[in-house]
Design a protein that fits this description.
- This is Cu+-exporting ATPase.
- The protein is 48% helix and 19% strand.
- The radius of gyration is 34 Å and the shape is elongated.
- The protein is α+β, with helices and mostly antiparallel strands and 741 residues long.
- A hairpin with a 4-residue loop joins strand 3 and strand 4.
- It has 26 helices and 27 strands.
- The strands form five sheets. It has a seven-stranded mixed beta sheet with strand order 15-27-26-25-16-23-24, sandwiched between helices.
- Helix 3 packs antiparallel against helix 4.
- The two termini are 37 Å apart.
Length: 741
């Protein structure tokens, strides 16, 4: 459960749901509870996610689920951390198959010209346990549906098979009356086998669904399994093994070679290679040295290391990732609204069609038995299992396989929209470039170069901006002492100001200097040349009583990320426009664009951080579907403004927090090629959803008329109904073979 200041999210597992009608019924029951803002029920995960005003409402919500006829469970009941046996839950199916075999055997005998029909008493003894013991779940759920004045798959199965069983009983007991009235004394044809086989086939179908559903939740189970149970706590008495739940922020943890990091931390001692493949999809180990950030769940390489804990429990990156994937798999795609609308009226319409079939056959001169059997076939084949599984099964499979390769999809809407994207806007620094610029030139004005560098490094020493790091690194490389600044103030989108050695300094963009009235005429030629060479040029000035005086020009250069040029070319080959948004001057931005293979017309330069969202809005004009890719906190407004926001994590973990709040998709690896992968898995997942919905609708649209016209027996209808659900699940699972290009 996650609490917020104004609302809370409550997750509840739900047992006993069988079809789309069940989903609608549970959602309706939950939404009636006072204080519920929204409720989303997922058939594939057998869970509900409820947004409420009061986090203490869970007991009332569980009561509402139970009153609706379903079993409230723990949130993790449907997605367990331990793989269940592949034969779990098969016992009732096995018993049903064993009892039905003698009933079906006479049908084989008919094909061979043999009469192997069992006496009516034996048919009764074999079929009745299947009908009322193995099939008890259908009666229980169907009864609750009637009490709620609604319908579901269980009600259809219960009505259909009960009608077949009751008809057989009536024919059996009225057979002596037939002989007494001079009618043929042959044994009547009973339908015990039809009812028993339908119940067994439905049970078999549900078991197969559960087995395939376990495969769709494999991604969640794999992520859960990354959490170690114990940690080696380093205290005054040496190493002590403690449960991970007892580890606190600030503790020191020892991690031995080959072990998983139990929590997030910062490397204090040692040097190692870390396997982060399950978190980022990156197959190659990453070198970690003192000061590097370590992520819980990743695997330590050859070195014994000591880390200081910086996040535990729900605050770790792994917990955020698990929550992200769970949110995506629990969410309901916009296309699901069509299914919900159909499901709301589906079962009542089927009952009317079945009644119409019964009356039509009976009133046209056929026996009541024949009319009833055709009506039963309509009830059985119309069960909307496949309809309820079509969308969530595909979403679970698609988001699961995407997570395996480091593409975390936050919600189903982002997944559904991403395949329609025709413009991708990239933030430049840290997304298309390495994000670690170097100070390539320093042009002092009125003072020495070392003095200018000392002042600039002092002013920038408290900043986390990449350009600030470049200045400080240049000073350290020349062993220049860096003085701590005072009265430091960041001016968003422009630069930094503060006091160093008693001097009030300002360092930022040339645009800011022009706004301050700084005379740049003496260095304009040099600045233009540096910009033409692709450098980002900043200026440092001093504020005195006489005004603001220029002290130096600083030029910075960055390098394109490996694979960035190929990523842009891949998107362009797919007919997707790519745009680069940069705060750099036009010359520097276009120089980098040229190296990346972008046209000058696709460069938006000199864009302040606060204006990025407005630029995204401009790109969306004219009906364009825009994806924004960024890696920093400053990109959050633009990520939220885009149709699809993609936050790209960097090696230091940046971007992940942004993704949790503003972006629909998180790219856990700083690889621009993952953008094309995210759009591709969206396209394939939506295609699977549409295929599943088409076949689910087509199955019912074709099956119900065939059953009503007498072309399908209840047994064939039951088999087709069971196989339709399984086929939908298997079609969705084909997504597990996907790999990004």
């Amino acid at each position: 459960m996650t609490n917020e200041t104004s609302s809370a999210t409550i997750d509840i597992g739900i047992g006993g749901m069988t079809c789309a009608s069940c989903v609608m019924r549970v959602e309706k029951a939950l939404k009636k509870v006072p204080g519920v803002d929204s409720a989303t029920v997922n058939l594939a995960t057998e869970s509900a996610r409820i947004e409420v005003h009061n986090p203490d409402m869970e007991a009332r919500l569980r009561r509402a689920v139970r009153d609706a006829g379903y079993e409230p469970l723990a949130p993790s009941a449907a997605i367990d951390t331990v793989d269940a046996s592949p034969w779990a839950g098969f016992a009732p199916v096995a018993i049903g198959l064993a009892l039905c075999a003698p009933l079906v055997l006479p049908m084989v005998g008919d094909l061979l010209g043999q009469d192997w029909m069992l006496p009516a008493l034996w048919q009764f003894l074999l079929a009745t346990p299947v009908q009322f013991i193995l099939g008890a779940r259908f009666y229980k759920a169907g009864w609750h549906a009637l009490l709620a004045r609604t319908g579901n798959m269980d009600l259809l199965v219960a009505l259909g098979t009960s009608a077949g069983w009751a008809l057989s009983m009536w024919l059996w007991f009225t057979a002596p009356d037939h002989a007494a009235h001079g009618m043929p004394a042959m044994a009547p044809h009973l339908y015990f086998e039809s009812s028993a086989v339908v119940v067994t086939l439905v049970l078999l179908g549900k078991w197969l669904e559960a087995a395939t559903r376990r495969q769709t939740t494999a991604a969640i189970r794999a992520l859960h399994s990354l959490r170690p149970d114990t940690a080696h706590l380093l205290g005054s008495e040496g190493e002590v093994d403690v449960p991970v739940a007892e580890v606190l922020v600030g503790d020191k943890i020892v991690v031995k070679p080959g072990e998983r990091f139990p929590v997030d931390g910062t490397l204090l001692e040692g040097r190692t290679q870390v396997d982060e493949s399950m978190l980022t999809g990156e197959p190659l180990p990453v070198t970690k040295e003192v000061g590097a950030k370590l992520t819980g769940g990743s695997i330590n390489g050859e070195g014994r290391v000591v880390l200081q804990v910086r996040a535990v429990g729900v605050d770790t990156v792994l917990s955020h990732i698990i929550r992200l994937v769970e949110d995506a798999q629990a969410a309901k795609a916009p296309i699901q609204r069509l299914v919900d609308q159909v499901s709301a009226v589906f079962v009542p319409v089927v009952l009317v069609i079945a009644l119409g079939t019964l009356l039509a056959w009976w009133l046209t001169g056929h026996s009541f038995e024949v009319a009833l059997i055709h009506a039963v076939a309509v009830l059985v084949i119309a069960c909307p299992c496949a309809l309820g599984l079509a969308t969530p099964a595909a979403i679970m499979a698609g988001t699961g396989v995407a997570a395996k390769f480091g593409i975390l999809i936050k919600d189903a809407q982002a997944l559904e929209v991403a395949h329609t994207v025709n413009v991708v806007a990239f933030d430049k620094t840290g997304t298309l470039t390495v994000g670690q610029p170097r100070l390539t030139a320093l042009v002092p004005v009125g003072l020495g170069e070392d003095e200018a560098l000392r002042l600039a490094a002092g002013l920038q020493s408290g900043s986390e901006h990449p350009l600030a790091h470049a200045v400080v690194a240049a000073a350290k490389a020349k062993t220049i002492d860096v003085q701590v600044p005072t009265e430091v103030q960041a001016v968003p989108g422009r630069g930094t100001q503060g006091v160093v050695a008693g001097r009030t300094l300002l360092l930022g963009s040339l645009r800011w200097m022009a706004e301050l009235g700084v005379a740049l005429d003496t260095v304009s030629t040099q600045a233009a040349q540096l910009q033409a060479d692709g450098a980002t040029v900043s200026a440092m000035a001093e504020r005195t009583g006489a005004g603001v005086t220029l002290l130096a020009l600083l030029a910075f250069a960055d390098e394109p990320k490996p694979g960035a040029k190929e990523a842009l070319a891949t998107l362009k080959a797919r007919g997707i426009q790519t745009v680069m948004i940069s705060g750099d001057n036009r010359g520097a931005a276009e120089a980098m664009a040229k190296r990346l293979g972008l046209d000058a017309k696709d460069v938006l330069a000199e864009v302040l951080p606060g204006d990025k969202a407005a630029k995204v809005a401009e790109l969306k004009a004219g009906g364009k579907v825009v994806a924004m890719v960024g890696d920093g906190v400053n990109d959050a407004p633009a990520l939220a403004a885009a149709d699809v926001g993609m936050a790209m994590a960097n090696p230091n973990g940046g971007g992940t927090d942004v993704a949790m709040h503003a972006a629909g998709i998180t790219l856990m690896r700083g690889d621009p090629l993952l953008v094309a992968g995210a759009l591709d898995i969206s396209r394939r997942t939506v295609a699977k959803i549409r295929q599943n919905l088409f076949w689910a609708f087509a199955y019912n649209a074709a099956g119900i008329p065939l059953a009503a016209l007498g072309y399908l027996s209840p047994v064939v209808a039951g088999a087709a109904m069971a196989l339709s659900s399984v086929s939908v699940m298997i079609n969705a699972l084909l997504l597990k073979r996907w790999k990004p290009d």
